[in-house]
Amino acid sequence: MRSAIAHVDAWIGDATIDMTNVPTLPDRDYPFREDVYPLSELAISEAPPELAAFLISQAEANGIDLTRDEIVELVCRGEGIPDQRFTVYWPSEAGMHVLVPKRHVVGRA
């Protein structure tokens, strides 16, 4: 997992998608990798296929159910590195989305 985590920054999507059906998140802190951020500093972005595949494999490896249309906190564990946590939303009609710091999202309106 170490090499996959090292490339997460490169995998973050280059645009956010208007998704009016996304559940409203409470105004609190949310995880991204080994840090937490206030909701005001985060945006939801579609995960590139490589990141989505990585997160699906990590969910399976850690016994986490990535339920469609529900927001899920995914914890990725690897030997010798801190836990990596992601807030994931996988709508039925679209690809997987991840809550990420706004500075990682380019192409936002």
Summarize this, please?
The protein has 109 residues and is α+β, with helices and mostly antiparallel strands. The chain contains three helices and six strands.
Key terms for this structure?
six-stranded antiparallel β-sheet; 6 strands; single chain; 109 residues; 3 helices; disordered N terminus; alpha+beta
Textual characterization of the structure:
The structure is a single chain. This protein is α+β, with helices and mostly antiparallel strands. It has 3 helices and 6 strands. It has helices at about 1-5, 10, 50-60; strands spanning about 30-35, 35-40, 40-45, 70-75, 85-90, 95-100. Mean pLDDT is about 80; it is low at about 1-20.
